[in-house]
Design brief:
Blueprint (H helix, E strand, L loop, with lengths): L2 H21 L6 H7 L1 H17 L6 H16 L2 E2 L4 E2 L4 E3 L5 E2 L4 E2 L4 E3 L3 E3 L14 E2 L4 E2 L4 E3 L3 E2 L4 E2 L4 E2 L7 E4 L4 E4 L10
Helix pairs in contact: 3-4
Keywords: Acyltransferase, Amino-acid biosynthesis, Cysteine biosynthesis, Repeat, Transferase
Pathway: Amino-acid biosynthesis; L-cysteine biosynthesis; L-cysteine from L-serine: step 1/2
Protein name: Serine acetyltransferase
Length: 194
């Protein structure tokens, strides 16, 4: 492993640990977080499986990525498809039950709580076809929220707990309810800022 790669991996680990400290007021310290936070274990495993998924010249890499992703799912309760694209400083707090589909794209500094689904509508087939949500930078996805289909949630938005989102959400919005409705974000939602 080259020095630049080691620095890149260590830098990413440090960023993820810092995101955990920012996203969880109960975070006690980096060592404890690295050992006990299933959300960190899931994203670190995903970063490896995603590289395997993209390594088309390596025979069996996609199979290996899927197997490793399933092992991570069994260990953490968090299912992230190796094809999903996830940005920097991503944090899953109390991650049990999180599901992120193959064509999902998640921006930087996103905070996700337990039970969140970034899923498809079903029936969408074909290679290269986007079936899952795109989540912008600095978005917070509340516990139990479901983002369904090839929708986009704009940057700096908050999706409330147990909200079901099936349509695009403009940047800077708060979305609440079943078949969520968007309104402009006032900045006083009491949600942690990453």
């Amino acid at each position: 492993m080259t020095r630049a790669v080691r620095r890149g991996v260590l830098g990413t680990v440090r960023e993820d640990l810092a995101a955990a400290r920012r996203g969880d007021p109960a975070a006690r310290g980096d060592l404890e977080n690295a050992v006990v936070y299933s959300g960190l274990h899931a994203i670190w495993t995903h970063r490896l499986t995603h590289r395997l998924w993209l390594a088309r010249g390596l025979p069996g890499s996609r199979f290996a990525a899927r197997v490793l992703a399933q092992l991570a799912r069994a260990a953490t309760g968090i299912e992230i498809h190796p094809g999903a694209r996830i940005g920097r400083r991503f944090f899953i707090d109390h991650g049990m039950g999180v599901v992120i589909g193959e064509t999902a794209v998640i921006g930087d500094d996103v905070l996700v709580f337990h039970g969140v689904t970034l899923g498809g509508r079903g029936g969408e087939h074909g290679p290269g076809r986007r079936r899952h949500p795109v989540v912008g930078d600095r978005v917070v996805l509340g516990a139990g929220s479901s983002l369904i289909g090839a929708i986009t949630v704009g940057a700096d938005s908050v999706v409330g707990a147990n909200t079901v989102v099936t349509k695009d959400v403009p940047a800077g919005s708060v979305v609440t309810g079943v078949a969520g409705t968007a309104r402009p974000r006032s900045g006083h939602e009491g949600v942690p800022t990453l």
